[in-house]
Amino acid sequence: MSIHVLIPAGGSGSRFGASVPKQFLALQGRLVLEWSLAPFLAEPAINHIWVALTDQVPEDAEQMLARLRRRHPGRLHCLDCAGASRAITVANALELIAEHSEHDDPWVLVHDAARPGLGRAALDRLLAALQTEPVGALLAVPLADTLKQAEARADGAAQVAATVPRAGLWQAQTPQAFRLGLLQRALRAAGDSVTDEASAVEALGLAPLLVEGDPRNLKLTRPSDALLLDALLAAQEEHPCG
């Protein structure tokens, strides 16, 4: 089984409000992108890891990627192919991966560049599921909190419109894993606005497998997330088996 990992890392992170895109921020002495790469570099079952970037990469990130490429020759690759949206970036990268893949239709695990807390156990569960899965799979966690649907008041504030039953609802994480050919076909049909790979595959009428993820596999979205992830990564360094 041929397995590739694709990390789209071309986002500007403008909503985050930092001086650099959030994937290039430092947490616990390492860039977020390096944390996100680490579990895949440590997994021998993964053949190739591809990072999709723009031509505007901070110098410390370039140095980090060069160091990791020297440490993992022929396995870690950087692609200058990021587009205006995640879907465009992934589609561009898949074309290049297809050109350089020694396997006709490898599995591709797409993982968020700003999701640095992926643990080994969750990754192992996903890889195990792919052994027999015909469609594809993604990490996700069942929702634990009560959900409220909002509506706007006359003054612009949000108020509760309804309580949404959470039974059967899961919060999607990454990696999301699909065969390269299926993912290309799904993204072509879905267009540029699709927000994750599973949604594009679902639009074809297919049902990806949900594999239990880990609540610590958080995406860095708001400045407050950095404080939580910093603490989680510090604990992960002390107890690396997770």
CATH architecture: Alpha-Beta Complex
CA-based gyration radius: 18 Å
Q: Which structural class do the helices and strands define? A: alpha/beta
CATH level 3 topology: Spore Coat Polysaccharide Biosynthesis Protein SpsA, Chain A
**Helix/strand order, N-terminal first:** EEEHEHEHEHEEEEHHEH
Fraction of residues in helices? 25-40%
- The CATH homologous superfamily is called Spore Coat Polysaccharide Biosynthesis Protein SpsA, Chain A
Low-confidence stretches: none
The structural domain count equals 1
| Distance between the first and last residues' Cα | 25 Å
Which characteristics define this entry?
two-stranded antiparallel ribbon, 7 helices, 242 residues, single chain, alpha/beta, Spore Coat Polysaccharide Biosynthesis Protein SpsA, Chain A, 7-stranded mixed β-sheet
Structural account:
This protein has 7 helices and 11 strands. The protein has 242 residues and is of the alpha/beta class. The protein has one domain: Spore Coat Polysaccharide Biosynthesis Protein SpsA, Chain A. The strands form 3 sheets. Strands 5-4-1-6-10-7-11 form a 7-stranded mixed sheet, sandwiched between helices. Strands 2-3 form a two-stranded antiparallel ribbon. The two termini are 25 Å apart. The mean pLDDT is 92.
Summarize the structure.
The chain contains seven helices and eleven strands. It has 242 residues and is an alpha/beta fold.
Map the helices and strands:
Blueprint: E1 3-8, E2 26-27, E3 30-31, H1 32-41, E4 48-53, H2 59-71, E5 76-80, H3 86-100, E6 107-110, H4 120-130, E7 136-142, E8 147-152, E9 158-164, E10 170-179, H5 180-190, H6 197-202, E11 209-212, H7 223-238
Parallel strand pairs: 1-4, 1-6, 4-5, 7-11
Antiparallel strand pairs: 2-3, 6-10, 7-10, 8-9
Helix pairs in contact: 3-5
